[in-house]
Amino acid sequence: MRIGIDFDNTIVSYDALFHKVAREAGLVPESVAATKVAVRDYLREIGREDDWTEMQGTVYGGRMGEASAYPDVFTVMRAARRQGHELFIVSHKTRHPFRGKPYDLHQAARSWVESAMRDSEGALIPPEQVFFEVTKEEKLARAGALGCDCFIDDLPEILLSPHFPKDISPLLFDPDGIHADQTSLVRLASWRSIAAHIGVEIV
Ligand SMILES: [Mg+2]
């Protein structure tokens, strides 16, 4: 099977890092929950939208190396590799942040993949199977051109896009259970449940 996987908030969880960076900058009180959404909502509420925008450049750029993966992502990838499945990362993000230092966000993400996503047998996903596109349309076209059988993403708007290739099974990764209203999509809360759904056996 050819398995397409989104990157941000599907493989990588930024919750702890957003909270850490916001606390270091003195932008949020300790009481704000350690999640990306809680930090964003707090900053919007107090009218610090620009700080939120700049913080995204910091987290996805300069501090990317400190981001962590969702539980069991690597276990599932190792099992999939062993069972002969082909894995692809297909993501979209701007090349540079909208505000702040002009980090190369594609390079920062690629460096994370190269350093975090490897074990004694080598890369969990070979570099030539990792794609960072600039637009949503390019991302979906890439997933289609790769002939993915399924595609895992945290955003319903990607999976329900009119550009989403018809022959790919969309799978919604919803670790925080915020998309219960998306009844037309297969919704999976953990990487273990993704593995079970697509038939990757974890030993
Ligand atoms: Mg995402």
What does this structure look like?
- This protein has 203 residues and is an alpha/beta fold.
- It folds into two domains: 2-13 and 69-198, 3-Layer(aba) Sandwich (Rossmann fold); 15-66, no CATH class.
- Helix content is 38%, strand content 17%.
- It is built from eight helices and ten strands.
- It has helices at residues 15-24, 36-45, 49-62, 73-82, 105-116, 136-145, 156-159, 191-198, and strands spanning 2-5, 12-13, 68-69, 86-92, 118-119, 122-123, 130-133, 150-153, 169-173, 186-188.
- The strands form three sheets. A six-stranded parallel sheet has the order 7-4-1-8-9-10, sandwiched between helices.
- Strand 8, helix 7 (156-159) and strand 9 form a beta-alpha-beta unit.
- The longest helix has 14 residues, at 49-62.
- The mean pLDDT is 97.
- The protein binds magnesium ion.
- Magnesium ion (MG) binds at residues 6, 8-10, 153-155.
- Magnesium ion is lined by residues 6, 8-10, 153-155.
Secondary structure layout:
Blueprint: E1 2-5, E2 12-13, H1 15-24, H2 36-45, H3 49-62, E3 68-69, H4 73-82, E4 86-92, H5 105-116, E5 118-119, E6 122-123, E7 130-133, H6 136-145, E8 150-153, H7 156-159, E9 169-173, E10 186-188, H8 191-198
Parallel strand pairs: 1-4, 1-8, 4-7, 8-9, 9-10
Antiparallel strand pairs: 2-3, 5-6
The chain binds magnesium ion.
Magnesium ion is lined by residues 6, 8-10, 153-155.
